[in-house]
Structures are given as structure tokens and as C-alpha cells.
Amino acid sequence: MTSAPVIPRPAATVLLVRDHPHPPPGRSPLQVFLQRRVTEMAFAGGMTVFPGGGVDASDRPHPDRWAGPEPRWWAERLGVDADLAGAFVHAAVRETFEECGVLLAGPRTPAGLDRLRADVVARRRSFDDVLAGAGLVLRADLLHAWARWITPHDYPRRYDTAFFVARVPDGQEADAHTTEAVEAVWWHPDEALERWQEDEMQLMPPTARTLQEIAGFGESAAVLGAAAERVIRPITPVVRRDGDRLVSVLPDRTTFPAVGFPGHLA
């Protein structure tokens, strides 16, 4: 008897983008922040990914600490209910702060950002407590929806992941100070894709497809503008065997190597 598919856990990931002031010859200014996860991670171990992670119980928007489009607006944008939409956005901002130190909050960047981040990572204080103590609000208006990907049905660990794009706020820097990644680097999208095609970088299908989508934009403003025009529909790849390898097949029939998921299909 075939068992029912595992219910996907909500998650959020953020494409942090910026413009390099002096790009190398042949490269556009656009760069995106990518992290290579530690090999021992249960999900996507060794993969190069955008910052992000699972929604947790604390990811519930507080109306007094929220600026920008409300959860009901995000619900329409992402095709989910308002509670889940708010949790997606909250998790995106929290995870970006935890994993690379970029705080999508305002109206200013607070002093002692590293200390506040350490408190959140160590769970000494909740993210909302940090915002409230610093007199900040979550800036939902700094996020732009890009896509929604759901792990294939036949995997034991599944995620329903909202992909957002955001430009790094002025005066802030993304870093690699996280235990979940062994390195974190700003990449030109086409450069990362070249490394992937040369087997020097491992990308899961959603990451590879997203890099392909943004590689044609020369600057971060163009990516943000394109995000506003995108229609967000859940993408659930189908995994099948192609000769001696497994491939993920997207709804448009594009195929990618099926890598990065635990318990690959036999």
C-alpha cells in the first residue's frame, strides 16, 4: 500500500541582492548572496542555497511591529491564508537576520546588531522581543514575492517554501557567521550557474531555476521590478529516473538533477 505524502512544513527563503559597484569585465552589477550548507544538515546538506529556514511557532506577526503590506495582502499574493502568509514573511525576515545578519526592519539599523542577533540565535530572546526592545518594526515592504516551491511528494522531509527577494539595506552587510553554512559569498548569478554546470557547486532545482530566472537582469532594481509582475503558483517537481540518474521535472518539462533531498528515490 502506498503511504500518503508527508505534509510539507512551511518555510521561507530570501534572495538577498545588491549591485557590485565595479563588476568584473563581462559581468553585470547584480549579485546574490549564497550559502553552502554544512554536509551534516538533514535537508540540503552540502548544497549551496539562499538564506532561509522553516517557519516556527514564534513566526506570528504582531500588528504593532509590522510595516508594509499586511498578511491579508500577502495571502492573495502567495495563494495561502492570512495566517500562513504572515508566518512566511515573519520567518523570512527572522531567518535572514539569524543566518546572515541582515535585518529587514526599521526605521533605522540599531546599535549592537551582532548582540541582538546572538540573542535570537541562542533563543535567549524572541525576534519580536528584539524588535520591541529596539523600537523597530518588521519591514514587510522590503520583501518581494518571487516563487513558491514544494518538495516532491515522495520524499520523507518536505517543505512548502515561499521565495522572496530583497535588496540589502544601506549600511548593512551580509556575513557567514552561522553554524549552518561553511561559507557564504556574493555571486553574480551567471557565475554561480557556470560553477554549477562545471560540477564545482551543488544546487537544488529551485535554486538553479531561480538563478537562471534572475541572471538576465543586470541590476537589483530590475529584479525587484520583475518580482512585482510575477504570478505565484506552487511548483512541485516530479522526480523520475532518467537512465542511471534521478531528475526533477518541472511543470514546464524542464529537468534538473534531483539532488539535495534526503532519502532519494531508489
From TrEMBL:
One of its GO terms (molecular function) is hydrolase activity, acting on acid anhydrides, in phosphorus-containing anhydrides. Its cofactor is Mg(2+); Mn(2+). The keyword Kinase does not apply. It comes from the Bacteria. InterPro entries: NUDIX_hydrolase-like_dom_sf (IPR015797), NUDIX_hydrolase_dom (IPR000086), NUDT19 (IPR039121). Gene3D superfamilies: Nucleoside Triphosphate Pyrophosphohydrolase. This is Nudix hydrolase domain-containing protein. It comes from Pseudonocardia hierapolitana.
